[in-house]
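Tutorial, part two.
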Amino acid sequence: MTPDRIRELFKIIGKLIRLGEIGAAAASGVKDHLVAVQEQFAAASGSKDPYGEMSSFLVPTLTNSRPPTQGMDRLTTIARSGADLYLSAVAAELGLPANSPAASVMAAIKTAMQAHAQQVPPSGAFYTFALTGYAVQLPQGNPPTIDDGWITTVIV
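Running the prediction step on this input gives:
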């Protein structure tokens, strides 16, 4: 695996990391706002038919908001699964069977990184992702050759 290919892998993995971050933040914001809608409705006192408003507006709004909010909540897990699938897809490039565990593929990427002097920022997002998800300590350096900024850059 070449240094350019290693950097390509991390650019794609970075997008998956970001997808998880965005999903978690969006779900949290939506939940907070839905609670605010409910609390504002409860604080309103000018309605002539509070039950009618609650049953025709509040309950359907909260009920219909649940599925997309739950979907956003799952984006972190979905993104992590996507990373696992991506690692399986590139396993053959590292001389591993396609059904290799994702942690084995990440360990092989680490070996390739070491062979080509590729490094992530010390204790950065890529390092933490590999450590917490796959128990792999990626090579670290300052300046890095694989930048955490790739996670939030739309297209690198």
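The chain has a mean pLDDT of 93. In part three we will examine how such features are distributed along the chain.
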